[in-house]
Amino acid sequence: MRVHGFLSLLGVFMVFSRADALFGHGVLRCLFTSTEDVLYLEQVYYNRLLFGQWNSTLGKYTGYNEKAKEIADALNKDKKFLHQEQRNFNKCKSLIPLVFDKLSKPVEPTVKLTLVKATGGRHPNMLVCSAYDFYPKLIQLSWLRNGKETKTDVLSTDELSNGNWFYQIHSYLEFTPSPGEKISCKVEHASLMEPKLYDWELFDESERNKFAVGGAVLLLGLLVFVAGLIFYKRNSTG
Length: 238
Ligand SMILES: *[C@@H]1O[C@H](CO)[C@@H](O)[C@H](O)[C@H]1NC(C)=O
Hints:
This protein is α+β, with helices and mostly antiparallel strands. It has four helices and 14 strands.
């Protein structure tokens, strides 16, 4: 079974604040296994141990200790509970178009070039080419000095997962500036018809502010979305 991605939402459903605190939390997940299939998984943890879980493929609740097994037996006979789990599964299913048509489309990276002081290297300066929030993971960053690709004094991170479908990557070029030199970061990605060049001089403060505002708006939107989901879930189980 290949999991293409998942949306997850985490709800802390009980907290006892005592010196020897006991802590429980639940994780509700839609796992999108193919364009036709989805697994709805509801897991309850108690003091970090898996206590019980609903697996939509299995179609029943499983308990992982004596007490949990008792509860599971009761839940598996509870028509209302089973009906609710079916509804949650259907909700996951209804998200399939969103996941495969919208979210799986290539998303162009936001690219930022920054100049920093190099420490301890052979060169006094370092340029960082950062690509943020792209999808899918495969990407190629390279450096051009006066239009010619350079591989020396270049270091790159792996693609780092943001945990929200998107990735970021950073490439570093150590260099000694020479007058009139143009340095560019070349980005190749599925979201781009052709390689895109980002020139060092082009990045000024106003560009940076635009990104900051866009990021804040996106974050706010996400927060509202997640809050809405949690509210929906609370209401529909309560
Ligand atoms: C859910 O149940 C199916 C069918 O028994 C099983 O193949 C799958 O591994 C289970 N998934 C999890 C995460 O337990």
